[in-house]
Amino acid sequence: MEKVEALIKQGIEFTFSWMNGSSTAVKRITLQEAAREYLKTREDEGLRRKTLETYSLALSHFLATTGKDRPIETIATKDIQVFIRAYRERHSVTTLNINLRALKTFFLWAHEAKLLPEVPKVKEIQKGRGLPRYLSNEEFDQIQAEATPFLADVFWFYRETGCRLREPFDAVLKGSFLLVPTENSKGHEERQIPLNHDLIRIYRELMEAGHNAKYYTDQFRKIAYKIKLEGHKFHDLRHTFGIRTWLQTGDIHLVAQLMGHKSVLTTQIYTRFFISRLQEDFPDLAGFTENQSRGRAEILQRGNGVSVEITTR
Question: What is the C-alpha separation between 286 and 281, in angstroms, rounded?
Fold first, then answer.
């Protein structure tokens, strides 16, 4: 028992010689048992709730394709390929890759815990990175016209704040700021979201409504489908905030701060749009100043390594 004490503390079960008259052996752990122990271990380590939910969902999907009673020691790379084929048609590449990353961390843990003789090879699906999708004024107005007054306010709230879906539900209102605590922040730093009077009103109504976050993504999807606004999803409201703020200010560092990006390199993708295209899609923001234009030129020059000349009206 002393030899395997560390493994017993990790939740691994053994049968000993005095129990069955033979040698000491590891009890065969099923995939479901290992998954439960893994999630409990990560929870005890203080992993963020949202990350735990992601890991749990990924493991549930994997168990559905391999069988929950399958001995974990038999899991191999071929099982990953079966999982990919089963879910590739039902999930986007982004979602599938999130699941694959979660499975990889699980397999590494299982290998360190002596449950897996080898770590299966988990290779993410490669895809080209396109520009972020956003809603033009015309498209957003179409969504608003079809939504109930309450939903229209909620969609406007997300477009004007750049909040991620769950952030309002994980935040607390302090004065004129929504504060997302470190443990609920994607960047693991407190997120500060400034609100004006109208946004504070909508936030309070949002909290009083009692719906979960998924309710709003479902409603957005239904409306977009109804009006044949293809290719758009709820997260596009956040991208729209980034685009509009960039067009208004020309200050990519400010946009990064307002969006809660840890690195401005993440935010610079919004600078890849032609200004003339954005002016057409957001005519209410078309009149930017010369200083803002210069700011855009400087960002584009640093980001693309080319000289940019901006002509203002």
Answer: 9
Q: Which amino acid is at 23?
A: S
* pLDDT above 70 (res 174): yes
Residue 63 has a pLDDT of 94
Per the prediction, the chain carries an average pLDDT of: 84
Rounded Cα distance between 42 and 20, Å, is 33
In the predicted structure, residue 87 carries a pLDDT above the cut 70: yes
Count CB atoms within 10 A of the CB of residue 116: 21
**What is the distance between the alpha carbons of residues 39 and 299, in angstroms, rounded to a whole number?**
43
The full DSSP string for 9-52 is HTT--EE-HHHHSS--EEPPPBHHHHHHHHHHHHHHTT--HHHH
Predicted confidence at residue 297, as pLDDT, reads 45
- Domain holding 45, by residue range, is 30-112
Instruction: Quickly tell me which residue has 């909508």 as its tokens.
Output: 202
221 Cβ contact partners less than 8 Å away, ≥ 6 residues apart? 233, 234
> What's the whole-model pTM score?
0.63
The total of structural domains in the chain comes to 2
C-alpha 246 chain-centroid distance = 22
What's the pLDDT tens digit per position in 223-251? Answer: 999 999 988 999 999 999 999 999 999 99
For residue 39, which of 24, 29, 49 has the smallest C-alpha distance?
Answer: 49
Helix 93-112 × helix 49-66 angle, to 10°? 90
Cβ atoms of 174 and 226 within 8 Å: the answer is no
Residue after which a domain boundary falls, among 97, 112, 127: 112
Q: What is the DSSP letter of 260?
A: T
